Amino acid sequence: MQFTIETIPRQTVAYIRRTGPYGANNMDLMERLKSWAGANNILDKSTVIMGIAHDDPAITLPDACRYDVCIVVPGKYEIKGEDINKTELSGGKYAIFMIGHTTEDIQKAWADILPELSGQGLCIDNSRPIFERYTPGMVSNHQCEICVPI
Questions:
Q1: Do strands 85-89 and 143-149 pair parallel, antiparallel, or not at all (unpaired)?
Q2: Predicted TM-score of the model (pTM)
Q3: So what's the pLDDT on residue 103?
Q4: Number of domains, the chain
Q5: What is the CATH number for 91?
Q6: Cystine design at 101: which of 19, 87, 113, 144 (Cβ 3.0–4.6 Å)?
């Protein structure tokens, strides 16, 4: 499994959080965020969207798993929307894995990423989130990136 190393800058994101089992409902959440972003004129061909799974379903009950869908916004952007929040994602060094955007490819990637990093002598920085990153070009080509802090 190939990856690149990228230094991602600190970013301000608007996000919607969902608590419950990971899966199809996460895509519904993404559509809600994209609808909000479109209505607020921040959705265009350069938009970066992220999905952050905060909990490991192997150790967290499905009903307690937290998932955020985020969109990068300017730092001083004023949030309008009752279920939209804003936070800062700390930047830093990340291993970037380009994968197919299918359930099967994502599951396989999660199984392969940790052994691949370990085999390269890299450790995950658990103080920062792992996230999926999407741009319109990636989505139209059925791809996404998994960004792992190292």
A1: unpaired
A2: 0.89
A3: 78
A4: 1
A5: 3.20.80.10
A6: 144
